Request: fold
Amino acid sequence: MALDIRALKPGSGFAAEVTGVDLREPVSDADFAAIEDAFHQYGVLVLRDQDITDEQQVAFSSRFGELETSLGFDQYGGVILPQIARISNVGEDDQIRPHDHEKSRYHRGNSLWHTDSSFKKVPANASHLSGREVPPIGGETEFADVRAAYDSWPGSVSGITKEELEGLICQHWIVFSRTLIVGDIFTEEDKKRLEPVRQALIRTHPATGRKVFYVGSHCQFVEGWDFPKSRALINELTSWTTRPEFIYAHKWRQKDLVMWDNRVVLHRGNPWPDEEYRRVMHRTTVAGDGPTVAEAAE
Ligand code: OGA
Ligand code: MN
Reply:
């Protein structure tokens, strides 16, 4: 079957479905080039019916670049490859975990709008999420097109202009973002290796030249600004960016593979009845090319 790419939100240029590709087999160079182009153009790609192993997922994802290794907060027996991050409510004993289990609380951070690994000095380029077991209700993943949000932003209610955002640097910290939703879940040791990092507030995509606000839940404050003013701006940019017209909500089917470009997309995972239904997702994460803030400016 020939490769085909179909827009999921016609007219918006955001999110597309790719058919005619089987990730159990090596993807030809020509098909890979078409997928990579579509990925840059659409920001989110959906591939249905990809009944893949971890090894096949790693092989495909590695075509996009070097992969991150998982923070390792939820690895267990079945998952042995360090490049696989497991996002699930199912424990080592193959049983559903209680809602208040520490790992469930850790993953619940994903229900806030965010961009993957923005709490790392070199944040992720892309994430590839494979729905190994998805619940029949809830648990959708929502994506926001920050390029369209940036292009149409009318300016801040407090009078800050788009031009004034250029050059601003924000601090991103996962300890902060988790505190917003599930409290102080990290040990002192974790906190030492998860120090806040600096990220540019405005990013430009290297392949398309499109600009975005690089915000999301890990974004704590603007350097040089007082905290209330920083929070007001970050909240305002996030609520503009996540207006309904910029959203693609993915309703998972078993064995979907969904990939998104963390440089231009915010995303969040919706809740589901997590003490009733299993949800097992395996993620590979393509590492970024470098810091968003020039080293010399540090
Ligand atoms: C992720 C993530 C959301 C979800 O894997 O990075 O945010 O719906 N997942 O599982
Ligand atoms: Mn995520």
Q: What stands out?
A: Helices lie at 29-42, 54-62, 102-108, 146-152, 162-165, 174-182, 188-193, 227-241. Residues 87, 110, 116, 127, 129, 141, 267, 269, 281, 283 surround N-oxalylglycine (ligand 1) (CB under 6 Å).
